[in-house]
Write a structure and sequence with these properties.
Pnp Oxidase, Chain A, alpha+beta, TR_PAI2-type, single chain, Split_barrel_FMN-bd
Length: 204
């Protein structure tokens, strides 16, 4: 991912938090010479060897997984808040741009089977059911329902590289930086407010 130095995020804890909060990503690989992508939750974890991994699963009917066997190199893309930045918000002439936060994770993928599949499903469901009024647990599902696990391909991705971009107008002076925050709040969309809040965390 092309990222000018001023926008590179190398704060490991911040990146980890971002991945945990924005875990619905895009898994990209090459299958039979064709680029494939699937939108799925990809959860950050640590394996038994203490290595950082992502885990997830896709439908067995999705041909993308066939490529995991021939080429284990994959890319996972995660997007955070983003918003248009108007040049009218500056005190000088400039060009339009876009503020955004994104993380690319590169790694080696391997298919997992057996009890490891159930464990990965338990962790996934527990994470997203924790705020439910009546949380569902994998352990409570019937054998008939759990038979559906035969229709998925579960995997782990050993992370080899992370590239993180946090482009939030760091190249502006304090006056223009604060004005961009004010204008983003006036736009008042979920995305513009989220970017404004990120900018407030990192004052110039």
């Amino acid at each position: 991912m092309y990222t000018p130095d001023i926008y590179k995020n190398e704060n490991k804890e911040e990146i980890k938090k971002f991945l945990q909060e924005n875990s619905f990503g895009i898994l990209i690989n090459q299958t039979n010479g064709i680029l494939c992508a699937t939108h799925i939750p990809l959860e950050l974890d640590t394996n038994k060897e203490g290595k950082d991994i992502l885990y997830g699963h896709i439908s067995k009917e999705n041909p993308q997984w066939n490529g995991f066997i021939d080429n284990d190199q994959v890319l996972a893309v995660f997007s955070g808040p983003h918003s248009y930045i108007s040049p009218s918000w500056y005190d000088h002439e400039n060009v339009p741009t876009w503020n955004y936060i994104a993380v690319h994770v590169y790694g080696k993928i391997k298919i997992i089977e057996g009890e490891a599949v159930i464990e990965s499903l338990k962790k996934l469901v527990d994470k997203y059911e924790q705020n439910s009024e009546n949380p569902v647990r994998i352990e409570d599902l019937s054998k008939k329902t759990m038979m559906q696990t035969r229709g998925i391909v579960a995997f782990e991705i050993e992370i080899t590289e992370i590239q993180a971009t946090k482009k939030i107008s760091q190249n502006r002076d304090e006056k223009n930086y604060q004005n961009i925050i004010s204008e983003l709040e006036k736009v008042n969309t979920n995305q513009s407010i989220a970017i404004a809040n990120e900018m407030k965390k990192c004052p110039i």
